[in-house]
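Q: Two folds, back to back.
A: First:
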Amino acid sequence: MKNIGIIGAGTMGVGIAQVAATAGCKVVLFDANTPQIDKALSGLEKTLNKLVEKAKISQEKATEIRNNIVKGETLQDLKDSDLVIEAIIENKEIKTKVFTELETYVSENCIIGSNTSSISITSLGAELQKPERFIGIHFFNPAPLMPLVEVIPSLLTEKTLAEKIYNLMKDWGKTPVIAKDIPGFIVNRIARPYYGEGLRIVEENIATIEQVDDAMKTIGNFKMGPFELMDLIGVDVNFSVTTTVYKEYFYDPKYKPSLLQQRMSEAKLHGRKTGKGFYDYNEGAEKLVAEKNDALYQQIFLRIISMLINEAVEAKRLGIANDEDLELAMQKGVNYPKGLLAWGKEIGYAKISETLQNLYEEYQEERYRQSSLLKKL
């Protein structure tokens, strides 16, 4: 698979193109918005120049990477691809339309992949003439830096294809894991409470945004608190993924979105990309400092980590991935300091169970129900 087509020249698309080109593949980058391709390639050149300046890569390697990527004028320019990866807007109808047209150009042996973070791979693949060649290949942002790639076969994917893509991602220098085609796959399912419970704590005036972030960083050793991370990802993007997972799980209360996050999205307070989200990133903006409170911090940490561990245990129970991949996904996909199953053992599954039981009794909400496996561990 040396000829790669990328559909979508946004941050993810050009990032995946860079990864493939770095691995020596020839890449055709296409976007329906032609000026976006020029913008993306211009940005890539700046990125490569910075890598050269920092001695991360040689000038020769930077030139090779850039020369390995060419601009596609039309979707038909992807006709010689061995693999096409789509990285466009999270909209099933738009994606399906693109795939339907793409199939008329590529060979029967061409593999078609989607970088979707939340849409069912089975539902997307079912629309193809040859659904057996379709698979989820989910990179994390920024694609050149984040090692994890979730490989998601659908119910219709040819049986050996997941292993082929798994090996290809290894060849590309990535850390692949194979996941079942369930809403959110591994990372976006298990990670939901990191944001959702943080938002809930703030909405209930139990703690401030700064305190929640500080608690998770100082006690949990997370690199970023949930609100800092939402600002980095994009408040709107994070809200969209949460909403999709909630709907796809038939409105399971565990994944219920936050009204605060919805209002932030409506106000276009999307985080770093707009200059303001939960924090203000504008020049001269006042940096609020968290008021330290050890007892409160312990309460925040235990509440959020218990929800996360419960999700990991439930994913284990459902066989969404094997234990090793579940642990690897959270560490390599969202930089968690430890695997959640290992963390559960360290804290004590009995303590996690007790915390969730107390929350359930306090709120009387299904949101806090325990995995049936948790009490058995």
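A: Second:
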Amino acid sequence: MTGRTLRLRRLRGTDAPGSGRRRGTQPKVVALGGGMGLSASLAALRRITGDLTAVVTVADDGGSSGRLRKELGVLPPGDLRKALAALCGDDDWGQTWARVIQHRFQSQGELHEHAVGNLLIVALWEQLGDHVQALDLVGRLLGAHGRVLPMSAVPLELQALVRGHDPQRPEEITTVRGQATVALTPGEVQSVHLVPNDPPAVPEAVEAVRDADWVVLGPGSWFSSVIPHLLVPELHDALVETKARRVLSLNLAPQPGETEGFSPQRHVEVLARHAPKLALDVVLADEAAVPDRESLADAAKRLGAAVELAPVALRGSAAQAEEGSGAGSARHDPELLAAAYDRIFRMHGRIGPWR
């Protein structure tokens, strides 16, 4: 057992004096996002609370999800699958099922690159006719440490206004359509919106946000996974009106394409432009990824938030292993991120006991 693992186990069982938590109680946490960013948050949060709900974007139109969406008219299941895999436990059962649902077929036929979990989720949607019930059933099968919900029950199209999408016309504003295209677009994304522009939120997702103790937004692809939650009217209102504390978890680095060249403070400013009524309590960033701490603090302060800097990135041999696996070098360390979240929950929590 590593020192960090032991420390996290102690954090789960013992609360700091004055933290406002009674021994044996846990905060209700809702994490919003999509893709690998949300998975990183969930892998950390499941280590420190047993009352965890993931609310996932449903605008993906690429890869296996895009093919299933186009062929069957269903919600894109890929980000929902990734969230479920991230919530699997570290025991043999959990890790086996995490690998199974993430497995992609390799063939010369129609099954090529389809993920097993995508097919399982869509099959249950067709069998049960209920998105939430089907995802809950998959979660029970996997032994998931939390619940996964789509942010909306209808497939959505993400559109972006991009300056300089055509390098020959650097000042021209172009509409770019589709999450997969927006995520890799050349040029500078000015804003994003959803089609339809007033999609219905999943009621269970709205209820979870309103009933939470903590809401965690990010990390993840900023325009295509994080901000879309703020564009669903009922979900936006719940995020603005909830009594929960709100944490914005920043990325470790700008994303090639949609946030190329963005500073940490610009990420905060862009989010604020899309949801000017949203207040925050804490902005969490990796301490090595913030060259200008004063500017980030100023941007956070305008939203009512304090900045918490912590070492949350994979480093050393662990980062090299991830890079060697093709996963990329900028990855969150789930144990370090869990420790950062736990500290935030204790130091910035409510006065008085958790529910």
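Q: And?
A: The mean pLDDT is 87.
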